[in-house]
Amino acid sequence: MRVLVTGGAGFIGSAVCRHFVADLGHDVVVIDKLTYAGNLASLQPVAGSPRYAFERHDICDADAVRAIFAKYQPDAVVHLAAESHVDRSISGSDVFVKTNVLGSFTLLEAARRYVASGRDNAATEFRFVHVSTDEVYGSLGDDGLFTETTPYDPSSPYSATKAASDHLAKAWQRTYGLPVIVSNCSNNYGPYHFPEKLIPLIILNALDRKPLPVYGDGSNIRDWLYVEDHARALGIILAKGRPGETYNIGGRNERKNIDVVREICNWMDRLRPDGASHHDLISFVTDRPGHDQRYAIDASKLETELGWRAHETFETGIEKTVRWYLDRADWWEPLRNRVYAGERLGLVKS
Ligand code: NAD
Question: Which ligand 1 atom is at minimum distance from the Cα of 35?
Answer without folding.
Answer: 11
